[in-house]
Amino acid sequence: MTCQDYKDSMMAYLDNELDAEQKQAFEAHLASCSKCTQELEEFKKLKQITDGVELVEPEDRMWEQYWGGVYNRAERGIGWVVFSIAGILLLIYGGFTAIESVITDPGVRPLLKIGLLALLAGLAILFVSVVRERIYFWSKDRYKDVRR
């Protein structure tokens, strides 16, 4: 295992959430790795600080103000999403119409048509690549289920 694998389990170690085998492997790694030992000490200090923090429940008035602001932000967010989708659809339609007119025009040289089709193919490949990458990293995100 690498140091990164052990760093991922440091808080579990401090919270006593590792089973006996994992704990033994972690402690064996600590004995041979000064960087991880130092980082564990920093986590211990952080844990001491956060263990002493008390949660203060806000007043009802504060909750009402918060939820009022959330609804306003949601309305604006939905408005921007609808506006963005409409803009994207119009750009796509206009782009395809322009490309179609260039490709079907017999006066346009074949080299320009091939270049335009290659440009479109490259854009399509990049788009699929970015979407695939986003989906992959979203599925591997350790913090995706953390409520903010």
Overview of the structural elements:
There is one protein chain. With 148 residues, the protein is mostly helical. Among the domains are: 3-51, no CATH class; 109-148. Helix content is 80%, strand content 0%. It is built from six helices and no strands. It has helices spanning 3-8, 10-14, 20-32, 34-51, 60-104, 110-140. Helix 3 (20-32) crosses helix 4 (34-51). The longest helix has 45 residues, at 60-104. The radius of gyration is 27 Å and the shape is flat. The two termini are 31 Å apart. The relative contact order is 0.05. The mean pLDDT is 84.
Order of SSEs: HHHHHH
Count of extended strands: 0
Helix tally equals 6
Strand content: under 5%
User: Structural class from helices and strands?
Assistant: mainly alpha
- Helix fraction, binned, reads over 70%
Average pLDDT figure:
84
Q: Could you give a short account of the major beta sheet?
A: none
Would you identify the regions where 5 or more consecutive residues have pLDDT less than 50?
Answer: none
Radius of gyration: 27 Å
* Silhouette: flat
CA distance, first residue to last residue = 31 Å
